[in-house]
Amino acid sequence: MNNKIKIGIYGGSGYGGSELLRILLFHPDAEIVFVTANEQAGKPVPEVHRNLAGLTDLKFSLASQEEDKLAELDCVFLALPHGQAMDLVPSLPANVKAIDLSGDFRLRDQAIFEKHYKQQHTAMQ
After folding, report:
1. pLDDT of residue 76
2. What is the DSSP string of 50-101?
3. Which of 68, 69, 84, 97 has a CB 3.0–4.6 Å from the CB of 75, allowing a cystine?
C-alpha cells in the first residue's frame, strides 16, 4: 500500500523549484507526480538542475498537460512568477491543498495586497 503524499509542482525550473525538488526527492513520504516549467517542457529535470543528476527521471511538462492528473494529487506547490498562482488556484479540485511560494496569497487583505503589489487580486477567496 502506497501512503505517500502525491504532489504536483508548478514552476519547477527556478531556484525555488530546484530547492523544492531537492527536498521532496529525499522525503520518504513524498511522491512527485509531475513538475511543470513551460519554457523547459520536455527536458529532464537534471538537465536544468544539475545538482539533481542521478536522483530523478522526472521531465518538465507544460501545465496544460497535467490537468488530468490533478484529481489524484494531495497537494500542489506553486513556485510560479508573481501573479500566476492566483490564476491557477481557483481551477484546482477542492480536495487538493495549494502551497504557494510566491506573494500571491501572502496577504489576506485585498486592499493591502493591491497597494503593495500594484495589481488586482483575482482569487482572494
Report:
1. 97
2. GGGTTT---BEE-GGGGGGGGGG-SEEEE-PPTTSHHHHGGGS-TTSEEEE-
3. 97
Residue with cell 509542482: 9
Read off the C-alpha cell for 96. Answer: 487538493
Give me the residue spans of the domains in the chain.
5-117
Residue 115, classed as helix, strand or coil, is helix
Per-residue pLDDT tens digits for 21-73: 999 999 999 999 999 999 999 999 999 999 999 999 999 999 999 999 999 99
Residue 78 makes CB contacts below 8 A (sequence gap 6+) with 10, 11, 84, 85, 88, 89, 98, 99, 100, 101, 102, 104
- The pLDDT score that the predictor gives to residue 81 is 85
Phi, psi of 5 (to 5 degrees): -80, 120
- Give dist(CA 13, CA 65) in Å, integer: 16
Return the pLDDT at 114: 76
**Second CATH level (architecture) for the domain 5-117:** 3-Layer(aba) Sandwich (3.40)
